[in-house]
């Protein structure tokens, strides 16, 4: 659990110090793609990955963060809850992508 706690603390730190970096600095390609598709309820991905700030807010939204004007930045508990859900979405998206690549040419 120490590694998970470290990564969540790191996500919070990067979100507050370098919010405009692309989210690929903190998330894998599978993670940010699954996150984007879940939040926007679409299968069309953007041409470039969103910022770290936006991606962390989306992760926190999955964990119950409301993001109202007076709420401030998401905390570690909301990010942790969202992170757990994101891992399920990412695993599912990875299976779908892997199956697509394996089925090419087999029909």
Explain what the structure shows.
It is a single chain. By secondary structure, the chain is mainly α. It has one domain (2-103): Transferase Inhibitor Protein From Tn5, Chain (Transferase Inhibitor Protein From Tn5, Chain A, domain2). It contains four helices and no strands. It is globular and about 45 Å long.
Oligomer: single chain
Count of extended strands? 0
Q: What is the share of helical residues?
A: 55-70%
Q: Can you tell me the CATH superfamily?
A: Transferase Inhibitor Protein From Tn5, Chain
Q: Radius of gyration from the CA trace?
A: 15 Å
Mean pLDDT: 88
Secondary-structure element sequence? HHHH
Number of discrete helical segments: 4
Range of strand content: under 5%
CATH class: Mainly Alpha
Shape: globular
Distance between the termini: 44 Å
Major sheet characteristics:
none
Structural class: mainly alpha
**Low-pLDDT stretches:** none
